[in-house]
Write a structure and sequence with these properties.
- It contains no helices and 30 strands.
- By secondary structure, the protein is mainly β.
Length: 359
């Protein structure tokens, strides 16, 4: 039982083994195809029952680990432009492969690393992280396979993402940043309570703050929940607040948020298409949760009302529907662009809108 088993995969081409994954069967992913060693019930693999069978013929990319999700195995195809899921179907008694990036392959640029953060509650989806080469950006897929939900997004920081790793529900990134003309490497963690990158936080009464790892760097400042003007740290990474903080502060590298809808495709009647016809967005209804700032097509959404001393307090997070419109101008696409450039809470749940056609 403690001796090794040596087997050979007989194929018509020379395939290098990329990864081995223990899924429904022992799966062997190579550069030229996917194979598996079938097993019967709970019988172990032995020299007598060792049989290698071909599953699919896509090929996996060298150097990128495969991950398991539900009953499927996710891997990057050898060309680096497709993310595939290999799963076993009982009706066919065979493995099939489906592309997860069928509508978003343009986001993939020869990924170099991949990891999955599985959901820990019913209020979130599984998140698949891929680190791209070249641009060194990060592609994140929110996956809810039971509902066929595949939601990709692209994350860019002031630097390069190098690697990703998951520890239960915590996501760690290796990041290369150029700080004060010097390349520096950091291990950073995603924190949904923060509003800046590579952030430093503090509590209590403070007249200044120091991010020693960010000398001579332009940073965002949140002082007691109120956004102050950006400042550039000195050679020691220190800044002085406009006013002394009383409870908490956060300083860090700024980032912007942008969400753009697909072009509007209105169907008129059974077969009449409105493609190529000018459209105008009349009204946008944004369903928000605990949100403090956002803009729709460059039109700032109001989250404050006039009142006494209103500017001396932080923006109260808003939950509900914000209505914006009408938006000016006709165009052929009818896209809606939602942005946020200030370090405050933002959580968009849903979006619907009214349009006018034929301008």
């Amino acid at each position: 039982d403690d001796q090794a088993i040596i087997g050979t995969i007989s194929t018509s081409s020379l395939n290098s083994i990329v990864d081995i994954f223990a899924g429904r069967d022992l799966q062997i992913l190579t550069s030229g195809g996917e194979f598996y060693i079938p097993r019967t019930l709970d019988d172990p693999i032995t020299p007598e029952n060792l049989v290698v069978r071909n599953a699919t013929t896509n090929g996996a990319k060298q150097g990128v680990p495969v991950v398991g999700l539900d009953s499927g195995t996710i891997y990057v195809q050898r060309g680096g432009k497709s993310l595939n899921e290999m799963s076993f179907t009982d009706t066919e008694q065979a493995y099939n492969t489906a592309s997860i990036t069928l509508l978003s392959s343009h986001l993939l640029n020869t990924p170099t690393d991949m990891a999955i953060r599985r959901s820990t509650s019913t209020e979130e989806a599984d998140r698949l992280f891929l680190v791209n080469s070249g641009n060194s950006d990060l592609i994140v897929f929110s996956l809810l396979r039971s509902q066929n939900v595949i939601a990709p997004s692209r994350i860019i920081t002031s630097g390069n993402f190098l690697a990703v790793s998951i520890d239960v529900d915590t996501t760690y990134m290796a990041v290369k940043r150029t700080i004060d003309s010097v390349d520096k490497y950091f291990i950073e963690v995603f924190d949904e309570d923060l509003h800046t990158d590579s952030a430093v936080t503090g509590t209590g009464s403070n007249a200044s703050a120091t991010a020693s790892h960010l000398p001579n760097t332009t940073i965002d400042i949140i002082n007691d929940g109120i956004v102050e003007s950006q400042q550039t740290t000195n050679g020691s990474g220190q800044i002085t607040f406009v006013r002394t903080s009383t409870s908490s502060y956060e300083i860090g590298i700024p980032y912007d948020i942008e969400i753009k809808t697909m072009p509007v495709q209105v169907q008129g009647g059974a077969s009449l298409s409105m493609k190529g016809v000018k459209k105008r967005i009349l009204e946008v209804n944004a369903d928000l949760f605990q949100t403090q700032a956002m803009s729709i097509n460059d039109q700032v959404v109001a989250f404050r009302s006039f009142g006494e001393d209103v500017l001396d307090t932080s923006v109260v997070p808003y939950t509900g529907i914000k209505t914006i419109g009408p938006l000016l101008g006709f165009d052929y696409l009818g896209e809606i662009t939602i942005t946020q450039s200030v370090p405050l809470n933002f959580n968009l749940l849903a979006l619907d809108y009214k349009i006018s056609v034929g301008g």
